[in-house]
Amino acid sequence: MNWDDTGFLLSKNKYNENSIIAEVYTEKHGKISGIIFGGTSKKIKNYLQVGNKIYVNYNSRNVNRIGYFKIEILKALTPLYFDHNQKLSCIASAMHLVKLLTAEAQTNKEIFNLIDDFFKILDFDTWIKKYIFWELEILRLVGYDLELKNIVTSEIINNETSYYVSSSKEKKIVPNFLIEDNNEKIDIKTLLKGFKLVSDYLEKSILRPNNISYPSSRLVFLNSLK
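Above: the chain sequence. Below: its structure as tokens.
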């Protein structure tokens, strides 16, 4: 099997002294793992930054064995944020989330486009808020839609509307910005409550049932916002 495609680098791990195993989310083939020979060399490793957009040639002699990548850089996206630690952490967290939530070799053009949109989000002043909605969208695309607007209950407290979801065990507050469509600036404390809501859902509905550890990259990112 041999094909060419465009993709985003999701992860890389050393394979031997000279090579790495990379995971790439491609436009036409979904998430694919492959070996990059010479991936530790100075010529290649400088643009093998997680998040970078690359052109890949994939070759595999046996569908049951891992194949091989030949790559070219298309857009060095991650290096644009080398001087912004929060955004670098966000890139690592977002790519790790795609890696965790997607299945091998299952094409989803919407997810590919969503990754492309992610890097546009980082240029906004309200990028943190937009990123929360980005996470909700990728959860929806892989079949875990929270459908917050359909499940919340509202109540008026001190002349202000509050939203919550409740069960027999708990009542969970939902930050207003996740329900109401507005362009108001949101303080970081409220944004972190939004992340907490997504994190709880992610852990309860996806990670814990599948015995997956909570991604450390997400913890690093959220801690950088505090």
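Strands lie at 2-14, 20-26, 30-36, 53-59, 67-75, 153-157, 160-166, 171-174.
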